[in-house]
Amino acid sequence: MSESYQILSPDTVVDYVARNPKLAAVLPPGQIQHVREVGDGNLNLVFVLERADGPGMVLKQALPYVRLVGPDWPMTPDRAAKEAQAMRRHGALAPALVPRLYDYDAARYVIAMEDLSDHQVWRHALNRGERHEGAATDVGEYVARVAFGTSAFGMSADNQKAALAAAVNPQLCEITEDLVLTEPTRPTGRNSVLPANEPDARALIEDDATVREMGWLKWQFMTHTEALIHGDLHTGSVMVRQASDGRPRSTKIFDSEFAFYGPVGFDLGLAYANYVIAAARAFALGEDERAAWALSLLDETWTAFETTFRSLWPQVRDPRVFTERTLEDFLAKVAVDGIGYGAAEAMRRIVGLAKTADIETLPPELREGAARGVLLASRMMATTRHADPDARNVAQRAGDLLLTSRTR
After folding, report:
1. How many C-beta atoms lie closer than 10 Å to residue 103's C-beta?
2. Which helix (H) or strand (E) holds 358?
3. DSSP type of residue 305
4. What is the DSSP code (8-state) at residue 247?
5. Are residues 219 and 157 in the same domain?
6. CATH number for position 59
7. Do 264 and 124 belong together in one domain?
8. Residue 313 and residue 295: Cα distance in Å, rounded?
C-alpha cells in the first residue's frame, strides 16, 4: 500500500481536489459549496461535492477493510483500480448508462466521477412505490453491450485475453463465492433470519437439489470467463431519474468494483433476484398490482438483453465458427444461468450477511411471509431453471409463491 494513501474526510476533500489539476478543471475548488459523506453501503467512503449552480462531483475511496464489518475484515483497496477499469470499458460500450469517470488516483485509491445527485437509487425508489419505466430495459441493454463488447465475440483474441488477465479480482470474487454461492445453503455464523423463518432457512439447507445447483453455479462463476461483468448488479447499483423540466429520463449503473471476467448470466440474475424481492415487499404491503409489475421486470430485462445482443451479433469477430447456431446456444445458456444466479442472490439476501431494505424495513409480522416467499421462489428458480428458464414463466411461478406465503 502506498505511503501516500491517506483516508479522506469531509474536511480534506476540497484541498484534495485543489491539488489535482484534472479534478480542479472539472470542479474549481472555489465553487464547492458543501461536502457530504454518504457512504455506499458495505465497502467504501463516498463524498458528494456540491456546488450551487449545477452538478458537482463524487469521490469514492476504497478503504483497506470491509466497511460493513470494520478493520477485522481486511480488504485490499486495489479493488478501486478494478472499478475504474470497468467504468472505462463499460462506459465506452454503453456511455449513456455509466457515470462519467473523471480520474482515478492509484496512490490514494480514489475514483472521481460524475455527480448523480439528480438521480436516486433505484432500490429506494422501488421501496417508495415509484415506477421508473424503462429502467429494467436499460439494465438488459447494458448487460448485453458489456457482454458482447468484452467477450471473444466482440474483441480480438489477443485483446480479450489481455483484458481478462487485467481484470482478475480475487478478493472481491471470494466475497461473492462465499456470501452468495456458498453460505446461504450451509449453516454459518454469518447467516441470520427472524425466529419465525428459522424453519424456512433449515428447509433451504436441507434441499439437496438446490444445494446441487449452487455447487454448479459456483463452479461456473469461478471458471466461465465469458465477459467483463459488473459483478454486483442489484437495484442498489442502479441510479434512476424521471423525465422532468426538459431533461430526459436516465438510468446509470455504478459500483462495478466487483467486476471481473465471469458468466454473463450472473449480472442478469442479480437484477432478477432484486425484482423478485421488490415484488415480495409489494405483496406484503397488499400492493398486488405493483408486485405484478415488479415481476414483469424480469422479462423486460431479458427481452432487452436478448434484443440488444442479437443486434450486435453481425459484428462478431470470427463468423467462421461463431455462427447463428452459436448465438442461439449462447443465449440459451445465459437464460438458464440468469435464473440460477437469480436464485442464489435472492436466497442470500434473506438469510445471508448483506440483506436488503426492501424486506428488512417491513414490520416483522409482514417480513416473515415476504422472506418465506423469497426463499421458496429461490428454491423453485434453482431447481426448474433447466426445464423452463423463460423469464415470464419464472416470474409467474415466483409470484404465486410470494402471494401464498405472505402474512397479514
Report:
1. 17
2. helix 357-360
3. H
4. B
5. yes
6. 3.30.200.20
7. yes
8. 28
